[in-house]
Amino acid sequence: MAETRINIFTMNCWGLKYVSKFRIERIRALASELSKSTEYDIVALQELWVYSDFEHVRDMLSGHLPQAKFFYSGALGAGLAIFTRFPIISTEVHPYSLNGEPIDVGGGDWFVGKAAASVVLSHPVLGQLQVMNTHLYAKGGEDGPEYRRAHRLIGAWELAKIARQAAELGRYVIAVGDYNSIPSTLPIAIIRQHAGFSDSWLVTHPFSNASATIPSSPQDAIDEFGVTGDSPINSWSAGKSFDPQTSQNFGKRLDYVFYRQPRLLPHLNGASIPTLRSTDCRVMFTQEVPGATYSFSDHFGLRATIEIQNPSDTKPASASAPDLESAESQNAWSSAADSAEPSELSDATLTIMLEALSQAYQISKRRSRKELSVFILCVLVLSAVIISSPWFPHSWISPIFMVFNVAVAWWGTTMLYEGFLFGNWERNAYMNTIEELEIHQKALEAEGRRQAI
Fold this sequence. Notes:
The chain is an alpha+beta fold. The protein has 2 domains: 5-343, Deoxyribonuclease I, Chain A; 352-452. Helices cover 38% and strands 18% of the residues. It has helices at 23-35, 51-61, 109-112, 150-168, 186-195, 200-204, 218-225, 244-248, 347-388, 397-452, and strands at residues 5-12, 42-46, 67-71, 80-84, 88-95, 115-123, 127-135, 172-178, 198-199, 255-260, 275-284, 301-309. Strand 6 and strand 7 form a beta hairpin. Helix 4 (150-168) runs parallel beside helix 5 (186-195) and helix 9 (347-388) packs antiparallel against helix 10. The chain is globular, with a radius of gyration of 24 Å.
């Protein structure tokens, strides 16, 4: 088996129990299709919530991918799983500090505990390879003020820190998953800039991010622009109404395969090490489930091939195809990230992120005050009902007020938790991140002054 490349597959399976339609049929069909191919070295799945589904996929892929890990997080699990043919050295799951609000039952992000899951693999050429799998917070969209995506920004920052730390330990890093963000957004900028990641799709399709280019058809959006979500070709999104930008682009590119080299450690200064470069990246599973009239998931899958280039095989930059996105393909946030040296957040990214988190902090503070006011009102209402109960004119009124009291008590308790416990937790997460960013900003300014001298 060739050890000069790594083939990776990632997909959001949409596998929530009782909610996702045809969940069992779709996941079994996906497992069956994946088991027919021996090309994949790593398979990372998101929204694989049900453990029995994980067991089925694991059993189907065990002949070629014998190593597997299902990650637990939150009340309902992280929904993340990794399957690989390389030996697993260690595993870790980092639940994001913020994953929505407890009162947002419909969204459900707070209950599932979205996280950055990772395995450290023993690779025969690269040594330690850390593979990360994630699914970022969903709500917030791409338009409007950045504070709407504050929880997603926190997740992006935490994932970038983990990836950067892994690279500073001398590991190669690959990060895949559903990032719920299109390439031009701030969360992707944070991840790419701070972690120093290369985007497999942009490396192999260097002009797909050109802002003036619009796909000519839904299939063109998939083939040339990497659209994986909200595609008219997908049965689960076909016929739905989307914002003008999504409709114009025939969907969104939400799923990614990022990679980077390890940072050169002091004792390796000047040494040559193997390098990674994506040579192929394509959207997969755009067809319907065999024998059915529905797609495998509400997302398409993404496959990437990353070549391992030995120092002696590396061509001079002028003689090779461009590995970095061209200037034309770069969006407002992107930065070159193929270097083994640390990348840094740009001034624009730092400034906008700090502003967004500061605004989100103030909004959280105002919301907590309103929720605590509702709690106090509930206490007053309950007290009034209890005090006045002996003077009820008819006995049949008492059961009605008992039900009313239970509802008011439940709502008051919820507001107390939301306004006090969760509110403090949320603001602490904002402040911790703001302070980290300010320290980082000052360090960059000091380094800039030192270099100027």
